[in-house]
Design goal:
Elements lengths: L4 E9 L10 H14 L4 E10 L7 E8 L2 E8 L4 E8 L5 H12 L3 E10 L7 H11 L4
Helix pairs in contact: 1-2
């Protein structure tokens, strides 16, 4: 791979079944299933948190820290939307991510989509990475 990793960001709108979007247990299971499907290794989580407030801003956030990086989602049941971020130094298939969301909520529209190659200049050798970081620091 010629870069550090890939970052997938999605916005799903028009969620058909919003019942899981406000359910801690369902989101915890979903995050485990998602990570398993894309072949990653959990080192912390899943952690699910609740955001209260006006219906437009209320929902759940779920995150899992991976040996390969992280996966996070933010649900907005009232808006029938989910925001997604999966970042990994290990290759994964974005269709696997999308398929898992179909299993969770049924139909939806992808209204925002970005797959970004991250770390084009990031060295693989940790010694070189430390040197690069040290050389870029401004003495304080």
């Amino acid at each position: 791979m010629s870069h550090y990793g890939d970052e997938l960001t999605l916005r799903l709108s028009g969620i058909a079944d919003t019942s899981a979007l406000d359910d801690d247990a369902a989101l915890t299971r979903f995050m485990r299933d998602l990570v398993d499907r894309i072949g990653m290794t959990v080192i912390a989580g899943p952690l699910v948190a609740t955001e209260t407030g006006t219906p437009e801003k209320a929902g759940k956030s779920a995150v899992v820290i991976l040996a390969e990086s992280h996966a996070a989602i933010h649900t907005y049941p009232y808006l029938r939307e989910i925001l997604i971020n999966v970042f990994s130094c290990k290759p994964f298939h974005e269709n696997d991510v999308i398929d898992e969301f179909h299993r969770l909520v049924g139909d939806f529209r992808i209204t925002e989509h970005s797959l970004t190659r991250r770390g084009e200049e990031w060295p693989r050798d940790l010694t070189a990475a430390r040197r690069l970081w040290s050389d870029q620091r401004v003495p304080g």
